[in-house]
Amino acid sequence: MEVSEERRQVQSNGRCRYHRSYVIFTILLILSLCYYIIVYENSETWTATVSLFFPETFHNKINVSQTTVSGGISAEPWKPPEPYYVAYPNNYSFVINEPEKCQKENVFLVLMIPVAPGNMAARDAIRSTWGTEKLVADKIISVLFLTGLPTSQDSEKLQEDLLQESEKYHDILQSDFWDSYYNLTIKTVVMLEWLSAYCQNASYAMKIDSDMFLNVKNLVNMLLPAPKQNYMTGLVARSAMVLRNPHSKWYLPITVYSPALYPPYALGLGYVFSLDLAGKLVKAAQLVKPVYIEDVYIGMCMNHLGIALTDPPDGSLFNVFPVDYNRCRYSKLIATTTRSLQNQVDFWRDLQTPGPYC
Ligand SMILES: *[C@@H]1O[C@H](CO)[C@@H](O)[C@H](O)[C@H]1NC(C)=O
Ligand SMILES: *[C@@H]1O[C@H](CO)[C@@H](O)[C@H](O)[C@H]1NC(C)=O
Ligand SMILES: *[C@@H]1O[C@H](CO)[C@@H](O)[C@H](O)[C@H]1NC(C)=O
Ligand SMILES: *[C@@H]1O[C@H](CO)[C@@H](O)[C@H](O)[C@H]1NC(C)=O
To answer: Where are the membrane-spanning stretches (predicted)?
Structure first.
């Protein structure tokens, strides 16, 4: 009798503990989701359309109408551009070009990094870390930064600095559109135009955001056995909801895009593709109505071409949420967002030091 009484007590205590930890777990989960959303609000290019994964109600808590874009360069209040929320992504020309960059050698992989003109800090972080890995397993890798025109008041000074930086490193491409968040689709299409014009002989390209950690060796290893054509991979979002609340960061009205779901697309933080796709996507972009969400737009163009996206061989290779640093984990992944440029640099450096990974 007493024993069973005690057991009941223990059981109910256990249940109570269980409930408590469940509540705590739920609260922690919500807090960490909020944290990540805030991290992404501050992330430079915002192309990781992460919250398309989340329900609209959650998403709507963010007031985005005054988001600063382009890494703090321009802070113009957002006015909805008409009619498609993006200038037609066509007929831009290069102010700074590197036409030889991809032609003189047989380049295996080109890393294309969209970045705001004034964000030299991000470029320098990459130049001192994964951007230095130009030869992996006999494969030649090219690294290029892609910017538009500075839009801020000190744009003349910025432009001068950019020209000097370009003289020094010869790794910058600049096209003559205004560099702003709502012009990222233009940036991506310009990137594809450049690849198809100056980089025909390369095998693969990756579009990667400047705030990412990249493990170049693992990327090359994934690509060695990959298909040579019609191949695009990354963190593939399938059946992502179109956000219909005007206050949400990625709002698209029905008049611009009527289906409830987007076609599959690879999250903009980092996607890899075979180079034949550059030309095909440029052609498709002349027919597919542009939207400002660049990764979604590439998904729409892939859909138009009838080419399916490929999931990466392992679900943990591409990471939309910053992965806590641990040598073992980082020795196995390909790309992850980071919380700061300093993390990006520190993690890469630690991974280069000798010693076992796991
Ligand atoms: C969101 O920002 C807009 C533009 O600054 C402002 O008018 C509006 O009151 C804000 N809404 C909320 C809920 O903070
Ligand atoms: C783009 O340029 C080409 C020739 O340079 C011209 O024929 C075409 O009309 C232009 N398209 C747009 C949309 O301006
Ligand atoms: C591209 O590849 C072809 C065939 O391998 C070669 O003949 C040509 O010289 C290459 N072009 C450049 C610019 O490297
Ligand atoms: C995008 O760039 C074009 C060309 O420079 C410019 O006319 C347009 O105002 C820009 N849009 C935004 C939202 O910055």
So the answer is: 21-38
Give pLDDT tens digits for 49-102: 544 443 332 222 222 322 222 233 333 444 444 544 565 666 789 999 999 999
CA of 92 from ligand 2 middle (Å) equals: 10
Written as one letter, the residue type at 236 is: V
> Cβ(286) to ligand 2 under 6 A?
no
Contact 150, 161 (CB under 8 A): no
Q: Give 230 Cα–ligand 3 centroid separation in angstroms.
A: 20
Closest CA to 171 of 98, 74, 67, 72: 98
Whether residue 84 has its Cβ less than 6 Å from ligand 4: no
Residue 206 token pair: 């990756």
For residue 104, the ligand 3 atom closest to its alpha carbon is 14
pTM of the model: 0.77
Work out the number of other CB atoms within 10 angstroms of the CB of residue 307: 18
- Dist. CA 123 → ligand 2 center (Å): 32
CATH code, residues 68-352: 3.90.550.50
pLDDT, one tens digit per residue, over 163-208 is: 999 999 999 999 999 999 889 999 999 999 999 999 999 999 999 9
Report yes or no: 41 and 62 within 8 Å, Cβ to Cβ.
yes
